[in-house]
Amino acid sequence: MRDSGGLSIGAMAARTGLAVSAIRYYEDQGLIHPWRNAGGQRRFQRADIRRLSFVIAAQQFGFSLEHIRAELDKLPKTRAPSKSDWARVSKAFRRELDARIAALTALRETLDGCIGCGCLSLEVCALYNARDKAAARGAGPRYLMGDRASDIPDAVR
Amino acid sequence: MRDSGGLSIGAMAARTGLAVSAIRYYEDQGLIHPWRNAGGQRRFQRADIRRLSFVIAAQQFGFSLEHIRAELDKLPKTRAPSKSDWARVSKAFRRELDARIAALTALRETLDGCIGCGCLSLEVCALYNARDKAAARGAGPRYLMGDRASDIPDAVR
DNA sequence: GTAATTCCTCAAGTCCACTTGAGGTCAAGG
DNA sequence: CCTTGACCTCAAGTGGACTTGAGGAATTAC
Questions:
Q1: How many CB atoms lie within 10 A of CB B95?
Q2: Which strand C bases fall within 7 angstroms of a protein CB?
Q3: Is B153 exposed, middle or buried (0-12, 13-18, 19+ CB in 10 A)?
Q4: What confidence tens digit (pLDDT) does each residue in B43-76 have?
Q5: Of A14, A36, A47, A59, which one's alpha carbon is 20 to 30 angstroms from that of B93?
Q6: Is A65 on the interface with B (CB under 8 A)?
Q7: Cα(B41)–Cα(B3) distance, rounded to whole angstroms?
Q8: Which residues of A37-67 are buried (b: 16+ CB within 10 A; e: fewer)?
Q9: Alpha-carbon span B48 to B35, nearest angstrom
Q10: Using CA atoms, how far apart are residues B154 and B157, in angstroms rounded to an integer?
Q11: B66/A contact by beta carbon, under 8 A
């Protein structure tokens, strides 16, 4: 198992809780960059566990793999990432996270006010316009992950 | 357009910002129940706009259509839903929403502590175990929507 | 009354994030 | 040395949420 010091894909799976197939898929998507041993098998650094943990956590917040890849690309590829490297990525990530939580909270309040009020004048209902706000700010998984402009047409008229 | 008073699917699309095809799909999934006019075309009540707005908002929070359908099934099918009908649905929805926001916030703090600290002893790192917590509590869209137990294997060993 | 628009039903295609399976190679234990 | 289990690639399948297209009928606008 320890060929030239690296971890096998099975060991990574055991340590992260991910399926082996998922880890291979993540390599495909450029999220991790294992090297190969003499026999062509993948070998991982211990630091890659952290990388994968980050992927898992970020996904739970609704970020797409592409988005996560973009964040991870900010880490150095040659040397193992240091504390400050991770802190930098974390900071950017945290900002988006805050925005997302804020958007969710705002939408929740809108929903409260609107559904609670029972107003049936839907043209002026806040809920009615919630998606525009969300689309502009990027609230839920949908808009943040897919970025499908076609989803927000001319509206209302 | 006003056959026996109902709104056409095109009118609904214009008022909600949804694509016509999406509205038809939602009917397929049991989220709305339009009736048909003499010529077989769908006709909607004005109250259905609110129904669709709810669908849109709930989706932004990461709920699956099936989950949303379950919530909407609590509304009366025969008469148009009243203020208190909506309030009841809203209350249940709000509870889940609160749980989700709390989980996100907790995960964010975990991430802060862990990535900020730069600890490289990943076996004890909180981030390392974040997914287990999340799986137990139901944090992100993934686990709440898919409920894929196969995703959380025997782990760590 | 007729042309343009809107609507209808299928069936099939798309995108994301994976999993499953076939057919074969590599590595570790006895 | 040889068997067993872990690993390899590549193609195809899955599920959720839709969209697109074909072929045709209903409605509306002039």
A1: 10
A2: 6-9, 15-20, 25-28
A3: middle
A4: 999 989 989 988 988 887 778 999 999 999 998 8
A5: A59
A6: no
A7: 10
A8: eeeeebbbbeebbbbbbbbbbbbbbbbbbeb
A9: 12
A10: 7
A11: no
Q: Which one of B49, B56, B120 has the shortest CB-CB distance to A122?
A: B49
Q: Is the pLDDT of residue B112 over 90?
A: no
Q: How many CB atoms lie within 10 A of CB B112?
A: 16
> φ, ψ for residue B26 (rounded to 5)?
-65, -35
pTM, two decimals, is 0.72
- Tell me whether A106 touches chain B (CB under 8 Å): no
Nearest to A69 by CA among A101, A27, A35, A97: A27
User: Does residue A118 contact residue B135 with C-beta atoms inside 8 Å?
Assistant: no
CA angle A143–A147–A149, rounded 5-degree value: 100
